[in-house]
Write a structure and sequence with these properties.
This protein is mainly β. It has helices at 2-18, 46-49, 356-364, 372-378, and strands spanning 30-33, 41-45, 51-56, 68-72, 76-80, 87-92, 97-102, 117-121, 126-131, 136-141, 146-151, 165-170, 175-180, 188-192, 198-202, 214-217, 222-225, 233-236, 239-242, 249-253, 259-266, 276-283, 287-294, 297-298, 303-304, 307-313, 318-325, 341-342, 348-354, 387-392.
Amino acid sequence: MKQTILFLAICLIVTTESRGQRQAGNEELITVDVTKSYSATKELILQDFMDVEYIALETNDDFLNQGLVMDIGKKIIIVSNRINDGDIFIYDRSGKAIRKINHKGAQTSREYNQFLGITLDEDKNEMFVNDPSIRRILVYDLNGKFRRSFKHRESTGNPFNTSYYTSIFNYDKDNLICYDNNDKSRAFVLISKKDGSVTHEVKIPFKENISLLLRRNNGAQFITAGPSYYRSIIPFKGNWLLLELSSDTVYTFLPDYNLRPFLVRTPSIQSMNSRIFLLLSLISDRYFLMEIMRNEFDWNTRTGFPRTPLLYDRQEKAFFKNTVYNGDYSTKKEIYFNKLRPVNHEIIESWQTIEAFELVDDYKKGLLKDGKLKEIASKLDEEDNPVIMLIKHK
């Protein structure tokens, strides 16, 4: 059976390439060689292919934060700090402060110890606070009133039961879509917003579970190292792209629960000793921005997992090394896409923070073009909260 599946997969790729990298239904299936050295380069201005919106978060004595966006809706922005202080800040879409909530504690089942993410359900006036330390999701209304909580699903094939949800998005009115960081046999699941029960399992086919984490015995204990954030679930105009690093294929998860190949990497990750991973940074109608990451780490300098940006131009049907600049600057202000975070919205692709002191400095140096960003910078104090940059599909 495995040989048959492999044969069919190879036939699919060969057939696709023979048609000029087209699938039935005129959908592209891109094949990326992660070992190839791409020599052609392309410089892009972000605003040429994406829309950008800037939001200055109101600053006052009760609303001082680091601008870490948890989720964004049509009317609400949820923000936290990078430190684990438990503060949750609710803003409206213009950046006006509404309220601050904090239920950090260990005294009752209605409190969280920490949170990895917060998912907004604006229609139901709810937010889902994901606490991996207790493997539980706590649900509050947007006034901070506790409504209910439920556990992460039980791990299968994991005797230590250490798996937990690392990415959670608002899938539909009844379900969340989640990525389980360890339970790779069923890494992607839909769970009920009501009680956390699994309503659908998304099974990505692969041979062997491959981990990004590297381990080393320092004599007293094992220490581990892993890369910074990468996207495993990417909302894209009503569909979802699912990236499982043990698989050679990135799939589109369709509304009918079927999987459609979106992108294929070569050589197979399963065949590599020194592993190279393919990550997705930003998906637009024309450009696919990616990163090639090597699974390497220097234990002496504590640095590693180097990333190389890569772009596929759907119009030119070619790959490029790339640099993307912010068009609201008069100089070449590079945007680093490994800092972008996806947003659960059909229009908003991702977000990034711009520190107030940086904007004030750039404004004084005359580096900002006339427009919304310059207007915001002219009114900022360098001690203010960060400005949120929203990157949206045109």
